[in-house]
Structure formats: C-alpha cells, structure tokens
Write a structure and sequence with these properties.
Elements lengths: L7 H18 L3 H16 L1 E4 L14 H5 L7 E7 L17 E8 L4 H7 L11 E9 L7 E2 L2 E6 L5 E2 L10 E6 L2 E9 L1 H6 L4 H22 L4 E6 L17 E6 L19 E5 L2 E4 L5 E4 L2 E3 L1 E6 L11
Parallel strand pairs: 1-2, 1-11, 12-16
Antiparallel strand pairs: 2-3, 3-4, 4-5, 4-6, 6-9, 7-9, 8-9, 10-11, 12-15, 13-14
C-alpha cells in the first residue's frame, strides 16, 4: 500500500507565522514569540506520515516501554495525520471536530529550551531527557492552521503508574491519564492566549493527549530493529506565482523483511490454538535492549472457528 504525503506543513508553516503576527497585534507578546518559534521549528523539522488516527497500537493505557523509548530520531520532528470520525473523541462540551493534525516534537536543545525561557520556565533536572510536544491543527470549521494554546513537556523514562484520585489535574505539573494509567507531564502555555481561552489545565491536557500519544508511539516503533524509514521527495511546489507553497520531504515507516521462520496459522503447537483472528501490529521485546515490530496478521486455527472484528491497522506496508 503506497502512502501519499498529506502536505499539511506546506500550509501550516505560513499560517502559524501569520498567527504570530495576529498575536502581536492583540498585544500577546509572549504568545507571538512562541508562535513564531513554532513556525520556525515546524519548517526545520523532519516530517513523518502517520496512519489515520495517528495511532500505532491498540488500547488506551500508557505503557512504560513507550515512555522509555521516547527518543526523537531527529532534533525536531512533525508527525502529520488525519483523524476521521472513527478515531475522534466522543462529542462533548470541550470538543470541536479537528481532522487535520500535526504533532510537533522538539528536543530540549533544539529550540524547546528557547521556548521554555520565553514562558519564564526555570531549569529542569535531566534536561536531556525532556521532549516538548506541541499540537498544531486546522479545525474543520476553520480555513487556517494554528497552534494550540498549550504544549506538553514529558521526560523520557518517567514512571507510568496506575491512575488514582490524587492524579486529578490541578496545576501545570500534572499527570496525563489515558485508560487506567497516567504519566507525569508539564503543561507549557502561551500565557496570554491560554488565559484568554479560559486558563483550564484540564482542557489543556485533553487537547494535547492525542499528539503526545502519536509521538510516543512513533518513537517506540522507530526503536524497533526491523523498522526502516523511506523518504518521499516533493515533486513540485503547490500553487502558482506568489501563491506557491514550499513542499517538504516526508518519511514513512516500512517493516524490513523478516529472515526468521514464521508460524503458519493452524500449525500445531503445544497449546490449544485459538480461533482465527486478526492480531494487531505490535512490538515484541527480543531482549533487554532490542525490540521488533510484528505486522498485523491472521493467526489461529480454522477448526476452532473465526473471530470477526473491525480493526484500525497501524503501519502501512
């Protein structure tokens, strides 16, 4: 299956630059500086295309292996993906349809430190383990891209813990909860814009969850020994004359051919074979420091029957 670039950044970069100008005109000085820096980082970032929904794995709980593998392959990356209705959050008072998404992730020394200084954030322990993730989106009702009022700072290797009431969000230093687990994060706001939007940290966590999941799962898959990246080069600029937009190289994920022997569905084993079902793509740990990506496949015994279920398969091949 071929994967076509979404070319979201081609529109998002000039739109976010214009957003910075608008913030300055409103007197939101720090928000304008942050937006201008986000546009610069997005322009310089390495772009990846993710599957619809931005998710690689099944399930809603954080996994320790994902946080441990949160090491960016480049100093700044942008993960572009589309969110259809089947992946969208349930409708509610805090949501509007946002189907076009970019998750911008930056290492602390590649611009995230400059952004933190703009907000007055002080030094942090183990800064080399910090990754800043900032959502940039185009809401379905809008015609321009804009950064969210907040980003999120997460530290590689922090402990994923079961959720309890003590993790209720009350401050910038909080826990991001999905399913039954939480991971510690720090909310980084555009101060004036954040306050103008209501100053809700609960909303900030809700708005950044999808993008943080997209980046952590992308890094976990890239950490697998059998995952390779393929570069798609731009063919031409979009538009004509002064309206031409800069197009970027994109990277897609591909699973390297396996040299190992695969067990065929229905083959005898030491345990009772389950009914035939689709096994989602997932990470298999081969040792303490090595992991591999296992493609989605049909497994099980024909004699035991078949399980019919709809799945969103992660990485295209």
């Amino acid at each position: 299956m071929s994967v076509a670039p979404l070319h979201y950044s081609a529109s998002a970069v000039p739109d976010v630059r214009e957003f910075a100008v608008t913030m300055a005109q409103r007197g939101f000085t720090v928000s304008a500086q942050i937006a201008a820096l986000l546009a610069e980082l997005l322009d310089q970032s390495q772009k990846f295309i993710l599957p619809d929904g931005g998710r690689m794995f099944a399930g809603e709980t954080w996994k320790q292996a994902e946080i441990d593998a949160l090491r960016l392959p480049y100093s700044a990356i942008a993960a572009e993906y589309h969110v259809g209705q089947e992946f969208a959050h349930p409708s509610g008072p805090m949501t509007i349809p946002v189907s076009r998404r970019i998750a911008l992730a930056v290492d602390i020394g590649a611009g995230a430190d400059r952004l933190l200084r703009m907000t007055g954030e002080g030094p942090d322990e183990d800064p080399d383990r910090l990754v800043l993730v900032w959502p940039i989106c185009r809401a379905d009702r809008d015609t321009r891209w804009a950064p969210y009022p907040t980003g999120v700072l997460v530290r590689r290797g922090d402990s994923v813990v079961p959720f309890d009431s003590e993790h209720h969000l009350v401050a910038p230093n909080a826990h991001l909860t999905t399913g039954a687990t939480t991971v510690p994060i720090r909310i980084i706001p555009m101060p004036e814009l954040f306050q103008a939007a209501g100053g809700s940290y609960e909303r900030a966590v809700y708005d950044t969850t999808d993008e943080l999941r997209a980046i952590t799962e992308l890094c976990a898959v890239l950490n697998c020994s059998n995952i390779e990246t393929r570069t798609i080069s731009p063919r031409r600029k979009q538009g004509r004359g002064k309206n031409k937009r800069k197009l970027y190289e994109y990277r897609t994920l591909e699973v390297a051919p396996s040299s190992g022997r695969q067990t065929e569905p229905g083959q005898p084993s030491d345990r009772r074979a389950p009914r035939i079902h689709l096994r989602r793509g997932h990470i298999r740990r081969l040792g303490e420091d090595r992991t591999t990506w296992v493609q989605a496949c049909m497994v099980g015994s024909k004699q035991a029957g078949m399980v019919v279920k709809d799945y969103a398969v992660g990485v295209g091949s």
